[in-house]
Input
Amino acid sequence: MITLLKNGRIYDPAHNKNGVVEDIYIRDGRIVSKPSNGEKIDQTFDLSGKVVMAGAIDMHSHIGGGKVNIARMMLPEYQQQYQNQSQQQYQQQQAKEIKGFSEPEAHICTPHCSHHATPSTTDTGFRYIEMGYTAAFEPAISPVNARQAHLEMGDTPMIDKGGYAMLGNDDYFLRLLAAQKNNGLDQKAINDYVAWILHATQAIGIKVVNPGGINAFKFNQRRLNLDENNVHYQVTPRKILQSLSRAVHDLGIAKPLHVHCNNLGAAGNFATTLDTMSASSGLPMHLTHIQFHSYGTEGDKKFSSAAAQIAEALNKNKHITADVGQILFGQTVTASGDSMMQHLNAKHANPKKSVIMDIECDAGCGVLPFKYRDQNYVNALQWAIGLELFLSVEDPWRIFLTTDHPNGAPFTSYPHLIRLLMDKTFRNEAFAKLNLDAQAMSNLTSLEREYSLYEIAVMTRAGAAKLIGLNDRGHLGTGAAADITVYTDQSDREAMFSKPDYVFKNGELVVKNGSVVKVVWGVTHTAKPAFDMGVEKDLRDYFDRYQTMQLDNFKISDDEISDDGHGRVVVHHKP
Amino acid sequence: MKNLNHNAASLNATCPACGLLCDDLMLSATPELTLQNGCTKGIKFFQQSFKTSLTATPMLNGKPVPLEDAISAAAEILCTSKQPLFAGLGTEVQGMRSVMSLAQKTDATLDHMHSESTVSNTRTMQNSGWLTTTLSEIKNRADVILAIGTDISSSHPRFFEKLVWNTDNLFAKPAPQVIFLGATDSSHAAKAPDGTPPQIIPAQTAQLPEIINALNALLNGKKLHADAVAGIPLATLNALLETLKTAKYAVIVWSAGALKIPHAELTIQSTELTIQSIVQLINKLNENSRAAGLPLNSGDGDSSVNNVSTWLTGYPTRSCFRNGNAEYDTYHYSTKKQLMECDALLWISTFNPYPPPDCKAPTIVIGHPDTKFERMPEVFIPVGIPGVDHTGQMFRMDSSITLPLKKLRDSSLPSPSLPSLSEVISKIENKLIGEVQA
Output
């Protein structure tokens, strides 16, 4: 069966195609070159004038696992508003909500906008595909909790999934690192452990959250700076970053170490972020939700934008990539592995409640509901800082569009965010509604840049696929999986990006006019570098002595992911 | 896992008998059932499970019928029902996934058999949040264990052996100091290996709220104008606080089920307030030192059922579907209330042979093969026991860990093995769709 997408305007940055009119042929779920004349075309879509991009890829979105489910469970009052609503109901709800606001919100809500921060797994898949996203990556799988994360992602329809396993606060790793410091153990033991974790947790990348800090919190340390020792292990976050970025590099996996820096959300943390960029000695690192790590201490309120310094450093340090973690105004919930900083921030929770956990000598978590308000000085400035970063980082291949769902805003607000980036007038109108003190502290209106469709395609498609190492996704070349999104070019970019005309998943038409027409199930993307299985001997002893589960039960088999008949594991290798 | 007898007949098993979900059991079935690392509850569970017949047959009004007939009868009851109640829900992840799918199609109400306890914890978490910990953290870090209103070991027998009196730990910590407030150590599990007994502060369950509130007041620097609270000298309470404050990692354990105050008018609310006070105490302690809570669960898959329900609909149980949309109400959707209003009852208990509660509405039981009935239900479909007859996945009490359950019974027997809950539910669902279409 051959499907022809005819005459679309192609935005495919992986092949430098910037709006050229071309045909795309699909056979057996893949993009193929033009068939010979004799071959029958079974189905043709006339896409004259339409914008055609690969399916979008969210490289950082909390879609499954312990803390996401805690967020759902602790906010039933919030869930109630959005439960299983159709898009139309969403809009009605939205309209009601806007009316209910007692203060003007700089977030100009449109009929396409929704604020669902804790969707069920089904809703997650549906809302993503309806926006033309065909893959999302859970960035914070704690290894002991990986089975739950995969169970939830297994129940998420429509899109491909994958995740990054968190290391760097687990006692096994810190023990290795401390031993290395004392005895000069070589890097190999660490590399083997990191590879073993990737296999055991079915992950595609490695993340570190507040390096050493989550562990330090369990020893009653309340803050940890980049060059400060964890009291027990006497190792610094810098040392952890060096070791993990080296392991990721040596193992040859594509995804650079995913780093949530120390001092999340703290005024003045930009200095830590700048220092962190040098911690890997030039090896690739990805700094995630960098907006939350770009704060200065200037002004009367001792809280200011350091976006300019961070953007300048990002422009200079080519080995660093970042995603923004934009905040947008409204109710959401922050779900983080960073128990240390979330405990510190619990007093700002709105509504006032928080779940903090120490987890299995492996990780931690902190879940706090949050309401970002445009009349709040700090929130308003956070909004501006995110946009300043987007507009000041020059290379769209090294900066990614995220709201750190749901921490900055639900992923459903991406179309709104895209409009803010592409439409200077719209952006400045919103800015004018912000808290006045915050306006005075931001240079946002002096930034003239408007993102192009091509740059949006880089950030949300080609760049994301390249970063994660998905060789056959994020582009429209021959051999690519036929994950394709088709939009009507509209000057209202929010309307355009919230409701694609068509979305194809592996060549099948699954969304028409923004609504799902066929339910499909995506795959789970993983990386499985070679390693020395000898590492398991020491690990088995460690599990038997200190953990409360067997090593064999810690490991997740491929069958567990495919057993329900929906999922499948796909292994990616660095080209 | 040292000194294991690895003979060919022994199998590694994960034990679903309590929330500790121990996965270090070695089980051999011949010549008789023996269990290494088993506890009283685990042994009872596996003995009971292995005694069940693999050939138990489905029944309609007490008369044996083929499985297909029982499926049809169940589908018919659910098809005509406007307000079915799915209760019991003694199952694991895979079973609950299928139950949720059927519930959505039949607009059913969902409640777990132990939700009276679970709901108090969930609602506390929803009202104020909490700061909690997990089993391996306790094993390696805890130097003080304060158990409030529970001896822990009757519901979770290996707690002390595995997590408190372990000699191996990561940080060379001393054996923890164990304190019981309002409970006794009847099993002696809490006695240290060197013979040190736990400290026991006696109190009635009904007095616990008063005592915990007094601890909170003292911790917040308030002066109490009394020499004793609920018969406990102030000096004892102050000493307890000092122990908690100076601990490196204090763990406060409670069991919502054991905090039920007898004869209280609003049982759930009073239990919830007690838990809320415990959570406050933990939060306050964490301003200066480290402490964490551990809510004990009640079992029969309660953690699994709540988690699955939450990721599929956004809500834990005591929920219902109306026109396919989920609603959540811990008051209205209780089994007790719904038994009076439902027009069909589907009772599920796969780990234990618990019979359904008395109900006037037509009753379908999908459960343990050895379930004994006072009144035969309209439909009874015996199913395999998860972790014995078929595989599955189960959440541990602390929800952080999900473990695979194994198939232990020989499937090569000549008789057909029992179907799993999810197989039966899927068949009912397919039948239902067929009937609606026809």
